[in-house]
């Protein structure tokens, strides 16, 4: 079997493509079942974030084309529209890739911590769907351990660098004094929580949190003396917002051009700064064409993020060294699986010899033979039978000049030169 990682990310595809292949959380269980039903797919997990969609699978050889075909069909796209943006890693390269992703080394924001939680969620979804077997279970557990080691042993997470931080930093460039402005946050997930935290630290005047479920919005807004509203109230409250930052899991835009036009008119065209972090996008792209609106997507945050990347570069190099060693450790475990059947067969063979010798010894004891002699005979018989076949094979190898087998035998049985 082969470990395979296949995906699309912010480096290979623009947001217009990434949003087309994203998986909504509520659809993951169904998608995983469909993926497992594909020929040659034995285990599978799906990671889908604003910056990447990746499949991690244990497959039979030559399954990459099958996976590209499946993800295209699932999202009702042609394979030709998807394939140019994909990348594929197999075995050792796949292990290295997931370790780099989990450690934040492959992120838009170098070293960002959110991705590890998202990978843990992907594992939980796959495990609950019965899509995780021995190989992927070991891979994900190893990944969590290595990512934790890198966080502990390097300074990769020392500075507050994330997509959320980049969005707030950009708003700081537009509005010098955030303590004079109101921010409308759409969504109540982890990313928006980070946005709220950074806005709070930078002294934003007022926060409004809009979410599909008011309870979630209240829970988040309460931490920052903010106000909670439902998504249905959002169009009427948009007039108050100088800053709008959105990150939901909606499959369709939730803020349209018409609502923003009405808000701008009531604001007498005072500008609104907007950042749409979501994939698929929450804000209709046409909003960006309006005067007095500054609309950014995750892809537009690259320049802000690049400045912060430099501060983490040295730590990233240390992390790469750790990953190199940990990849080899995992591959060693993976290679050891190849010996499982051989070891099991050898143990079964030895157990049959032991059982037969044991029966003979018990019969002799029952017949009244001297116990000491029975034990000596038992040990001699066991020794002779266990070494008989290896001895025959080594003699044959020597006769045929296959000295490599003899060298392997010395290593296998741990024989020293003087033995």
- Which range does the strand content fall in? 5-15%
| Low-pLDDT segments, ≥5 res | none
Shape: elongated
The name of the CATH architecture of the largest domain is: 2-Layer Sandwich
The number of helical runs is 17
Please name the fourth-level CATH homologous superfamily of the largest domain.
Answer: Glutamyl-tRNA reductase, N-terminal domain
Report the C-alpha radius of gyration, rounded: 30 Å
Q: How many domains comprise the coordinates?
A: 3
Written overview of the protein:
With 419 residues, the protein is an alpha/beta fold. It folds into three domains: 2-153, Glutamyl-tRNA reductase, N-terminal domain (Beta Polymerase, domain 2, 2-Layer Sandwich), CATH 3.30.460; 163-309, NAD(P)-binding Rossmann-like Domain (Rossmann fold), CATH 3.40.50; 346-412, no CATH class. Helix content is 52%, strand content 14%. The chain has helices at residues 15-18, 28-36, 64-74, 79-82, 92-102, 114-128, 134-153, 163-174, 190-201, 214-222, 234-237, 257-266, 302-309, 313-336, 340-366, 371-399, 403-412, and strands at residues 2-9, 41-48, 52-59, 87-90, 182-186, 206-211, 227-230, 243-246, 272-276, 293-297. A hairpin with a 3-residue loop joins strand 2 and strand 3. Helix 5 crosses helix 7 and helix 5 packs across helix 14 (313-336). The longest helix is centred in the last third of the chain and has 29 residues, at 371-399.
